[in-house]
Amino acid sequence: MSDFVLTINEAELAAILADYYAASNDQRPNEFTPSNPSVVNTVNVAIAPPIPTAGNLQPTIDFATATAAESVANFGKQETPLVVTLLETLDDAGDLAGYLIQPVPKFWFGNIQIIMNGLTDAQRTTITNLDIGSQISVTKTFPKSTPSTVTQLMALEGISHDISPDRHIVTLYTNPARIYTYFIVGGYTTETTRTNLVPNPNFEVNTTGWVGRNSATIARATSQFYVGSASLQITTSASVNNGVTISPATAITVGNTYTLSAYVKTATGTLTNCFVQIIWFNSGGTEVSRVTGTFTTVTTSWARLTVTGAAPVGAVTGEISIVRNTAGAGSVWFADGILFEQASSALPYFDGTYQDTYTGYTLLDDKWNGTADASTSTATWGLTSSFIGSQIGDDTKGLG
What we know:
Elements: H1 10-17, E1 42-47, E2 63-67, H2 69-75, E3 83-85, H3 90-100, E4 111-115, H4 121-128, E5 135-141, E6 149-164, E7 167-176, E8 181-185, E9 188-196, E10 210-213, E11 216-221, E12 231-236, E13 242-246, E14 250-251, E15 257-266, E16 271-281, E17 287-292, E18 296-298, E19 303-310, E20 317-324, E21 332-342, E22 361-368, E23 377-384, E24 387-391
Parallel strand pairs: 1-3
Antiparallel strand pairs: 1-2, 4-7, 5-6, 6-7, 8-24, 9-23, 10-13, 11-12, 12-21, 13-20, 14-20, 15-19, 15-21, 16-17, 16-18, 16-20, 22-23
């Protein structure tokens, strides 16, 4: 039996395969040429068929289809012609088909002509400052179309000038711009900075700045502490209202709201009617008014006492105090972690060395504004966010 040989010339082969292969790149300036350039909601991607043989002059084409059903319902079926590729599997073809889907209208403006004669000086300056690689925002109105207005970010790939005695036309050659986002690991979307106005809030070194009220005497104690390794010990020598006050009083700003808080406990037993207080003074040292916190029963466990108030008209300083009503002579109690700041509520305690947990925030920076344990302190927290996205060229890095 003799061998059978099929001979096909190049022209015939090209005719057979003409429908199987996509147009060359120079014929597809927007990656592929759909039947409708504004919406592509059905995409067909095929695997290149095998070379025809004597037994099969037109091999079967296997292809994958991606469809945006909602887009089809809104705009009708708008489909690409068959795109034949060199992919090996249908799964790969399906991935490519999904990538090529354009389910909503997107108009690609190929070029824009601008007649410079009719522009203002400011507009001319804007146009003349454009360069290759610049990004521009293009808005076009379609009187009888949906959507009626389309805005697109475009990248300039070419600029030409047509200058004649009576006019100057600038043509901008554009392509859709791609906005890339970079991420900052451990960045923060929001930052908050707070200042503790108490210069010696934790008694780690001494009791400087604090004085006893009425019959109270004070000392630094290392047997009890809320933060660090020491606290302020207050001993009552008579059955009268007593406590401690910081001196001199703290400078404040009229109209601002301030919150004072302190952690208090007893050595033994309980103390009733303990509270914190802010007394507002004018420039002559005369009391303008005062705000007093809730009367609280204190035990051998640390309890936080708080009070909030707005600095009244005429006030220039605020004197902060920790007070207990009449109690027996010889009773001992402790105070630590004193916080006085501009705030509308009691926030977690901090100073230049120690900080309580601030839920949802991460400490970024803390410092004493002068000598440690003898000056105000400032701390900055970031609202935790694992990644902050920011467009390239955005100097704020997504932070504002």
